[in-house]
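User: Show me a protein chain along with its predicted structure.
Assistant: Here is one chain, sequence first, then C-alpha cells.
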Amino acid sequence: MPEMLKKIVQQTFPIVETFHSVQGEGAWTGTSAFFIRLALCDVGCWFCDTKESWSAKRHPQQSIDELVQGSIAANPSIVVITGGEPLMHDLTQFTKALHQAGLRLHLETSGAHPLSGEFDWVTLSPKLFKPPHESVYPHASELKIVISQAADFEWAEQQSQKVSDLALRYLQPEWSQPESVDLIFEYVKQHPEWRLSLQTHKLLGVR
C-alpha cells in the first residue's frame, strides 16, 4: 500500500458510537442505516439528546479503515455520518473512502462549520445558537427545523429562504415539548411547503 494511502486509511476520528438501525427522521425514514456518530460539538443546543458527544476526550479513536469495514459489514442502504457536529472534522478523505467502498453517504449537520466531504444526501438542521456557514446551504437536500415554541417558525422561514427550492422542508417537534406537535400541525396546514417530521425511532423505542 502506498505510504500516502496508508496514512489516509489510518486517519482517526473520535467515535461516540456506531450502530445499525433504520433512519428515524425525514425523507429516508424507515431505511436501513448504519450510523457513525462523531464526537465534538460547539453548538450547545439545550434540547440535545446526545450531550455526551460534545467532548471528544472521553471517546475512542477509530481509523477510516475500521469505520469503512464496519460500514461494509453492516450492509446498510445508507451510511449516516452524524454527531455531535460532524463538520468540526475534515471529512474529505473519510467520505472518499466510504464512496470507494460503494456506500451511499448521508450527512446530518447543523451546518455550523464549512462543508467538507462529498455526500449523496445532506440533512441540514440549523440552530439559532450557532447559525450555519454559508457554504452548507447550497448542498442541503432537506432542511429540518426543531420547533419548541411558536417563535421558532420565524427562524424556520429565514432558513428556508437560504436553501434550494428543491430541498425538502421539515418541521420537527422538540421531544420534551409535547405542545410543539400541535403548533406544527396547524402551521403545516397553512404552509403546504413544509412537512411534519417525527422521530419515529423514539416512538418505536429503537435506536
